[in-house]
Design goal:
Elements lengths: L1 H6 L12 H18 L6 E5 L4 H13 L4 E7 L34 E5 L1 H15 L5 H13 L10
Parallel strand pairs: 1-2, 2-3
Helix pairs in contact: 2-3, 4-5
């Protein structure tokens, strides 16, 4: 892609891992929708990290609105770079790029949750069978992260 851009003056590359517009759109839309849907607050946001734009934009807004909010990044167990581990190959498409994206502001994270490929696939399949939701494996990873931690995070915070 970089070669195409270098050779063609009409070509453009969005650079979604470092383009601040990625964060901005989640600040202006996704975070606002979540805040509107949960006016009394949230205790936790648990979501996968691909480009970093979603989790960063949402966390920027919601942590200001709900100061006790805890934000957890979901990453592949086989490539735990956000947790300080080494990158590795994995089949969980959409998360775990193998590096920490510029758009991921790690200072907004309260922790990470590592999910195995088996857990991610299991929860994607369960969502289809049990709820009729046809989701991808990265969404399966997010569901697995919630399921693995819901008892630990069970105590509801006061706002």
């Amino acid at each position: 892609a970089k070669q195409i851009v270098a050779e063609n003056p009409k070509a453009w590359m969005p650079q979604q891992f470092e383009n601040e517009a990625n964060i901005k759109i989640h600040v202006e839309t996704t975070a606002q929708e979540i805040a509107k849907d949960f006016p009394d607050g949230l205790d936790y946001v648990i979501t996968g990290v691909g480009t970093g734009g979603h989790i960063t934009g949402v966390a920027q807004v919601l942590k200001q609105k709900f100061p006790k909010l805890k934000v957890f990044a979901v990453e592949p167990e086989a490539s735990p770079v956000i947790s300080g581990g080494k990158p590795g190959p994995h089949p969980i498409q959409g998360i775990g790029a193998g590096f920490i994206p510029k758009n991921l502001h790690t200072n907004l994270l309260d922790g990470t949750i590592q999910i195995s490929k088996d857990e991610a696939f299991e929860y994607a399949q369960r969502a289809a069978k049990e709820e009729g939701l046809f989701i991808g494996v990265s969404s399966g990873a997010a569901l697995a992260a919630v399921a693995k931690n819901c008892l630990k995070f069970r105590k509801v915070q006061e706002y």
